[in-house]
Design goal:
Layout: H1 7-11, H2 13-18, E1 48-54, E2 69-74, E3 82-87, E4 92-97, E5 103-108, E6 114-120, E7 125-131, E8 138-139, E9 148-153, E10 159-164, E11 171-176, E12 183-184, E13 192-197, E14 203-208, E15 218-223, E16 230-231, E17 238-244, E18 250-258, E19 260-267, E20 274-275, E21 283-288, E22 294-299, E23 306-311, E24 318-319, E25 327-332
Antiparallel strand pairs: 1-4, 2-3, 2-25, 3-4, 5-6, 6-7, 7-8, 9-10, 10-11, 11-12, 13-14, 14-15, 15-16, 17-18, 18-19, 19-20, 21-22, 22-23, 23-24
């Protein structure tokens, strides 16, 4: 993955952890809590290109699993990572961005009309928003002095949770969907990042090393105001990228428990932990289909990063992208309500 022209990338532990470049987390002094941060979005315009590439169909028929569309990150278009949308039924891929810096995929809005993403300016990263055809890109955090990333929508689409280093270390913040009224939710000397909103809107799952040595992370759950933090996964393994099932009963996540990373599933109360992929390759970044029957994830089991689908019961993993470039970070489009 290329990071030319992105010195701020190194400083953003959130994204480096997501892509597993092996950064060492440094413990920062405990920040002084502040109740409210006001942040005015600064629109940015990046070159946008929409085109369609037809991939070689998979040999195994693929169920739609709901909407049948997945946004993902890929460097198949050149030196930088851009956003693409995959139709799992036709295998068509539509390119959304064609910028001069990396753009990392984030989730669709609950109504399926917009996309969150992490974009990169000259120095720092920011939370961006665009239409699903790649038009009207906007910088939603607009902070030139800090790295912001890892966004997620509230189920009603009114708020966006994200990670920021603006107060010295990685913490969880939330803002309105227009970028206004930024509020800090976590206050810990260790790193809290990768928020994921529960389907009922009452809780946020996130990743933290607050109870371990720096860089050894577990999955936690808290109320949406930052209260009642509970540790979900135990031990000294390394857990990342929690994703709630559509019914809110389970969380899929990536974990290093037995050597290489696999996709695991655990109940929201911490019971029923199981290894879904159980493969000697690296399996990362799970994403549930809207109907809960499938999980998309990225894997290097074919020699490079590809987007795979697997049944939520662990059956029939299939390669969806089949491209010599690296395809990563899948997010499924919701079924329109």
């Amino acid at each position: 993955m290329s990071h030319r022209g992105l010195p701020g990338y190194v400083g953003l532990l959130v994204l480096s952890i997501l892509f597993q470049v092996g950064c060492t987390v440094l413990t920062a002094p405990t920040p002084t809590p502040t109740s409210t941060t006001t942040n005015t979005p600064t629109p940015t315009i990046a070159p946008i290109l929409t085109s369609t590439i037809t991939l070689t169909p998979t040999t195994v028929p693929t169920p739609a699993g709901g909407s049948g569309q997945i946004v993902f990150t890929s460097n198949r278009g050149g030196a930088y990572d851009d956003l693409y949308i995959l139709d799992t039924v036709s295998s068509d891929v539509t390119r959304l961005t064609n910028g001069d810096s990396n753009t990392f995929a984030g989730p669709f809005s609950p109504d399926g009309t917009q996309l969150l993403y992490t974009g990169f300016g000259l120095i720092h990263s920011y939370v961006g928003l665009m239409n699903i055809d790649g038009s009207n890109p906007k910088n939603m955090t607009g902070d030139l002095d800090a790295d912001d990333g890892f966004p997620d929508w509230s189920p009603d689409g009114s708020q966006i949770a994200f990670t920021s280093r603006r107060d010295g270390n990685n913490e969880i913040y939330v803002m309105n969907a227009d970028g206004s009224d930024v509020r800090r939710l976590t206050f810990n000397a260790m790193d809290d990042f990768a928020p994921a909103w529960s389907p009922d809107g009452s809780r946020i799952a996130f990743v933290s090393d607050r109870d371990n040595q720096p860089g050894v992370n577990n999955i936690y759950i808290m109320n949406i105001d930052g209260s009642d933090v509970k540790r979900l996964t135990q031990g000294d393994e390394i857990d990342y990228t929690p994703r709630w099932s559509p019914d809110g009963q389970q969380i899929a996540f990536r974990a290093h428990h037995d050597g290489a990373a696999d996709i695991y599933i655990i109940s929201f109360d911490g019971s029923g932990l199981r290894n879904l992929t159980d493969n000697p390759a690296e399996d990362w970044s799970p994403a549930w289909s809207p109907d809960g029957s499938l999980i998309a994830f990225q894997t290097n089991r074919d020699g490079n990063w590809e987007i795979y689908l697997i049944g939520s019961d662990g059956t029939t993993p299939t390669n969806q992208t089949n491209d010599p470039a690296d395809d990563q970070m899948p997010y499924w489009k919701p079924t329109r309500r």
